[in-house]
């Protein structure tokens, strides 16, 4: 007997998996912030557009990660509608976006410890988001 799964059954599972991936990335970056700032004592600050140093709060980390994750999700969903090769195209785009995003902390981190921590937080988010969202893409 052959079993088929309807596309309507797959979509809720795909949405759930993508949501869990975004939430897991957010939790991971918040954990990274906790380890770096309160536990290790890193003064986590970045220069804003006006050049003034601003503290990087857990709210900023969570919101940034959520927005990045939702943008990744949206771009993957769009590519799935536009091309049969959404998975490899999205993966390349995601890695390029990660590389570009690293320019922010490298240029804006206040001090070497803050710069390294901000880069690490970007990498943690990507380590969860890229494989997690990629896994949910249709083949």
From TrEMBL:
Domain of life: Bacteria
Transmembrane segments: 60-79, 88-107, 113-133
Pfam families (alphabetical): DUF6069
Key word Transmembrane present: yes
Keyword terms, alphabetized: Membrane, Transmembrane, Transmembrane helix
Name of the protein in its database record: Uncharacterized protein
């Amino acid at each position: 007997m052959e079993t088929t799964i309807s596309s309507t059954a797959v979509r809720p599972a795909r949405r759930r998996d993508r949501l869990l991936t975004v939430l897991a990335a957010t939790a991971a970056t918040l954990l990274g912030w906790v380890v770096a700032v309160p536990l290790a004592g890193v003064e986590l600050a970045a220069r804003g557009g006006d050049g003034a140093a601003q503290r990087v709060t857990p709210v900023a980390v969570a919101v940034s990660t959520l927005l990045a994750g939702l943008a990744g999700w949206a771009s993957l969903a769009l590519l799935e509608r536009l091309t049969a090769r959404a998975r490899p195209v999205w993966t390349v785009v995601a890695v390029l976006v990660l590389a570009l995003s690293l320019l922010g902390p490298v240029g804006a981190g206040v001090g070497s410890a803050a710069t390294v921590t901000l880069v690490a937080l970007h990498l943690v988010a990507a380590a969860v988001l890229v494989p997690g969202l990629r896994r949910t893409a249709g083949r």
